[in-house]
Amino acid sequence: MAAAIQFFRGTDEPVVPDIRLTRSRDGRTGQATFVFEEPEALAPEAMGDITGMFMVDEEGEMVTREVKARFVNGKASALEATYTWKSTADFERFMRFAQRYAESHDLGFSGQGEGAEAEESEG
User: How far apart are CA 2 and CA 48, in angstroms?
Assistant: First the structure.
């Protein structure tokens, strides 16, 4: 089973989001912010109200209800969703999903998010 993101259960969102991670200093809590530009979930023929974002993979489903639309000239043009974790186990579960999602969508995935420890540069 491929990893997928859904705004309506059973319907995969084909638009791949930009994802930014921020973590607390101890790494236990944090957030992933997903930005979908022109997602199909906002198309006029979409199925109705968006009640959440569902991240589905072989382990099951993670849900966030923090989804909001961004408007340009009065028209919804993007969706922004925030997934928050409150434990190391939840973070590790999220990262397993992110890895599977990247693999099933042919994305490069570095595992490093903004707000993670600063990377050392050589030179």
Answer: 25
